[in-house]
Specification:
Elements: H1 2-24, E1 29-32, H2 34-39, H3 42-79, H4 85-110, H5 115-142, E2 146-149, H6 166-197
Parallel strand pairs: 1-2
Amino acid sequence: MKCNLQLKLFLTVLFLSCFFVQAQRGTTVGYIDMNYILESVDEYKKASQILDNNIEKWKKEIELQKLKLQQYQDQLNAERIILTPELISDRELEIQDFASEIISLQEKRFGPRGDMIIQRSKLIQPLQDQVLTIVKQIAEEKKYDFIFDRSSTSTMLYSAKNYDISTLVIQRINRLQKIQNRKEQIEKLKSKASALKN
């Protein structure tokens, strides 16, 4: 009976001490710098290059249309003397329509729902999703309560460097990329070997 009471007392003390240790742990906070992470990943550099090339192509396309518009206006001004008022009015309407088409093209390429935004989302969103998945894994492993993105609009006035897990995220992304590259090399070797057998 006395042994049973001591055992219950010991278990109660053990339980309460574990509870107090857990309560004393406090909140663990970490942060990342999404810009730094993305700029360190080769896939992001490739995606950015593709996007930059497309943006340059679209700008040239719009500039070409603006040059055509200027040619139409210059031609109208040169022929204005020999044209009737009705023809001048018709040409001015055509020029206005062409100018409206240029504005529509600019909106299509660079507007809030334009090609640039859509492509940026298609190219960069998978990388951001990968980073967020890895951040979640690290948070669960290291028992972080909160992880902030230093490069976002949320305000972070001070943070100690030891809470920065950006480098850890980059290391995991690079490790996953190496594994993927190895798998691709193995598949190439397998396909070469099967081609040689045939």
